[in-house]
Fold:
Amino acid sequence: MKFTWFNLMPWPYLPEDFREKNRSVWVDIDSKLYDPVRGHDVYNDYLDLLEYADQLGYDGVGVNEHHQNGYGMMPSPNIMAAALTRRTKNAAIVVLGNSIALYNPPIRVAEEFAMLDVMAGGRFVGGFPVGTSMDTNYCYGQIPALTREKYQEAHDLIMKAWKEDEPFAFNGRYNKLRWVNCWPKPIQNPPPLHIPGGGSVETYDFCLDNVYSYSYLSFTGYIRAKALMQGYWDRLTERNEPDESPYRAGFAQTIVVGETDKEAEDLFKEHISYFYNRCLHVHAGFADAPGYRTINTIKSGALSQYAPNMGDLSKMSWGQLLDEGYVIAGSPDTVREKLEFLIKSLRVGNLFCLMHVGDMPKDKCMHTTRLFAEKVMPQLRNIWPDYADDNRFWCSPLDQRATPAPVDAALGARSEALAGGDD
Amino acid sequence: MELRKIRTRHTEAHLFEGGSGPDLLFLHGAGGITAEDPFLTALAAKFHVYAPLLPGYGESDECGEIRDMLDVTLFEWDIAEALGLSKPVIAGHSMGGMIAAEMAAIAPNDVDKLALICPAGLWLDAHPIPDLFALLPYELPPLLFHDVEAGTKLMTAGLDLGDPEFLKAYLVQNARQLGMAGKILFPIPDRGLSDRLYRIKAPTTLIWGDSDKLIPPVYAQEFKKLIPDCSLVSIPEASHMVPIEQTDQVVAAIAKLAG
Structure:
């Protein structure tokens, strides 16, 4: 089982009446609510937490891409990932991912993922989301009905750019490039790739065709996810694929751990409430630009999790959030038991643990992160013994990896000596 | 009006045909059009009307090969060609007005007269057009109708978004229609038309509702400035849905243009 510690990087200073006074946390959020000076500390704390997760033995540390979003301060996840290459040691750096239809030209992604993989010594896992409609259409102006075609072309270009050893011409519909010559190349070529999907058959097939891991990243929890993930496994059976490795799938789940069930509630309830109340407040008109979702997907009933008919999450009680699986919270035993059910019922080998939630302060986040690492993770680590050797969807780092040299007085003295030698 | 299907290079196009008089090609707006549309019926009293649907509208198939403004413009010309129309009058409403203007700019000698009813296609920074693609159903009537109450009634008749099956059908229709419209209107309805309007040779009438809240009348002045032989008919007590709100006046203006 692979556990990735994830932080969406929410802005923790949304006011209490945010929901009443603002129509959306995304796209047209009031930019006056952002304070770059406070933001300096927030980024620093969030990077500390990701580094802490590495020290505690999480398999991966995860970052993702959102734009103009009050709960996601990573318009460029690659910048965060680059910062993480220096002080993390063992965890995979999981960029889930780059919305490849937004990069112009998309070889930028081939180059940056290659840079990250090389900097991290092969400790890199990537992902190619189509991107939400909010990000892709409303913030970045992509034409909804053409987004998927552009995504597909970007994918083909990136994969070819990594693979080819000679410069080549790429005459795409959206990209005309006479000299494609990816430099540098990744150590893992290609790196392991995860594709976030929202229930469309097209994305199931895309993952199965290319041997990418299918990830469902939702905030609505493991109980509601059952039908969607089952759809993926059914598709695999329908296509007569003999390979049912759980590592072909991943799932994101909000998880908080306390010493006891009560402690978990006492410590984290307010921060969970901040997330479901203020952070998920998205104007319904931005949820799903017409043409963004395929007709087949709409007919299958897979609506945006931001669609108005998904119910008002802000009114859910702590008990409801737990009972309906939105959040897994409690003592290590409670969390382990629920996660075991999640992992087996969804059949997933990759768990993206949303461990920092809403406006959770650093010390509380370190507490739940440590309890999970020490008392939950070890019990679930070998839950898929039959697939222990399946490493297709995870990174293969170099055995010998460079580490940052100490920048200390010794180096300084050596530099001064060298300078002196020139006289 | 009769539904007719006609083969083009890319797809089987659907169109409504009816009436008698000079040939008139009518291009619908982003909301689409039906055979029962009262404006089409009124137009058919004076013209032989052909009203093609863009792919994905009505029952017609979507068409992945039609991606941009030029594709759309040529799609409409392909239909005119298949119908054997020679120098038709072309009229278009909103998005359809944008397409009609493109058709007349790209083939200036092939259009007899041009009627543009509050067309899209230009953008003025000082007068941003509301984002049609981010509006919720209840936000539309105040933008589209002068008589908001009557407009709301018209738009919400039979609408039940609380019913999951209805919602699904509604979303499918939206995705098919507005997905297509988005190819030329999203995120800003400007595909460079202002650079091409100088080419139009057909005598042109602009028809605009005085209280248009979607594409405000200031845009009429901009079109008038850019199209060589152009006059403006302003219609009071009408908003963006002027063909529905003041049907007779719009038909009269087109009939006068066609002479």
